[in-house]
Amino acid sequence: QSGYITLDTGFKNTGATTSSITFLDGEQGILKYRGYPIEQLAEKASFIEVAYLLIYGELPTQAQIDDFQYKISHQTLLHEDMKKFFDAFPHNAHPMGQLCSLVSSLSAFSPESLNPNPTKEETNLAVIKLLAKMPTIVSWIYKGSLGAPFIYPQHKLKYVNNFMHMTFGRLTEEVIIDPVVIDALDKLLILHADHEQNCSTSTVRMVGSSGSNLYASVSAGISALWGPLHGGANQAVIEMLERIKNDGGDTEKWINKAKDKDDDFRLMGFGHRVYKNFDPRAKIIKRACDNVLEKLGINDPILEIAKKLEEAALHDPYFVERKLYPNVDFYSGIIYRALGFPTEMFTVLFALGRLPGWISQWLELRDNKEPIGRPRQIYTGETRREYVEISQRG
Ligand code: SDX
């Protein structure tokens, strides 16, 4: 092939596409969805409203959001055959492993999603089905981990309320979910909804670029999000903070461990490929953390450790030089824990929030008729070698 290949491992300085969905400014710490600042959306909007904004490009009118919620609430059931998949997993199978399998399996019950040239209506049906069924899948994964009976969705409940009803509801009694908990989760889902071309979104786009269906593309994104360097960090942060607490809470010791090149320990929840300033989401989540724990009357000792760690790192030359600040994952786990979720469910909650972002980016790629993704490489292997019969090999 003529021409030069520019090597950019990890795509640190490569634009993979054009997009009108999310804007990030890493130096200024700015994040906007379809032009709306994340601070305003987190304060004023609902998650389902933000999902509509990301997917269809505009803030919905009352009629549009009612229709959107109505369509979703009538697609929340899973095909009863899917229960066999939940039963097949060992009860301690990681929720992210279950989620990527179960989301991919949705194509088996949605023939319209396999049409290589779907109509707009068929595509929109697949979008609605995925938005509607993901909360049911996530809550049933949680119930399965407890050996508890599945709680079915209810048409009359709004998106986040329905998810919490299925997750913390019981067959034998009415469980009232604290509105503080609903509001906190709604805000967290908004803050996770999209983030331009991060690892998992780039994966969704790459898989979608080959013509793969929406469910398979999002399932691939879930796999990418699972990694501890990406969405899996929110689980790793809590495990790290627990480790520090159980080790006596000596944050200086752990800061020095994170700086030690011979030690592969990293301060999970710190640093970001794009934000070289505070992650705007982390600022909002940190405030929400104080607010939620106070309202719920929870005193979680690891919150104090997190704040001590943050304070120490923000004044340590190693972190300052490398512009390492708390990212979205640093405080989110503390809130998820306060809302009653086990640590293993945290990254699945990240996926639930990111779903509308993945969907909107997949649709944009298809609408823009982008070519199949196929990067090149710099070859560093052997030049030419002749085949040697096995009897002649030393
Ligand atoms: C998410 O991309 C997105 O938008 C992702 C996300 C989204 O919404 O989709 O924002 C969600 O994934 C947030 C990030 C969650 N991950 C973590 O918290 C894991 C810990 N963070 C790091 O592993 C790291 O900061 C990354 C993965 C987030 C970014 O990695 P980069 O950009 O490849 O940076 P790097 O690994 O090359 O680090 C640069 C330097 C290195 O030191 P030097 O070799 O220059 O001496 O900074 C150091 C690193 O050793 N460093 C850290 C560190 N992060 C980077 N040192 C200690 N602790 C850390 N957390």
TrEMBL record:
Which Gene3D superfamilies did the record assign? Answer: 2.20.28.60, Citrate Synthase, domain 1, Cytochrome P450-Terp, domain 2
Q: Which domain of life is it from?
A: Bacteria
Record GO terms (molecular function): citrate synthase activity
Where is the catalytic site?
H272, D329
One cellular-component annotation, GO: cytoplasm
- PROSITE patterns from the xrefs? CITRATE_SYNTHASE (PS00480)
* Gene Ontology biological process: tricarboxylic acid cycle
List the keywords (alphabetical). Acyltransferase, Transferase, Tricarboxylic acid cycle
What is catalysed by this protein?
oxaloacetate + acetyl-CoA + H2O = citrate + CoA + H(+)
From the UniProt annotation, give the residues forming the signal peptide.
Answer: none
Cited Pfam families = Citrate_synt (PF00285)
Output the NCBIfam families linked to this UniProt entry: cit_synth_I (TIGR01798), PRK05614.1 (NF004126)
Q: Which family does it belong to?
A: Belongs to the citrate synthase family.
Kindly provide the name given to this protein in its UniProt entry: Citrate synthase
* Protein species of origin: Arcticibacter tournemirensis
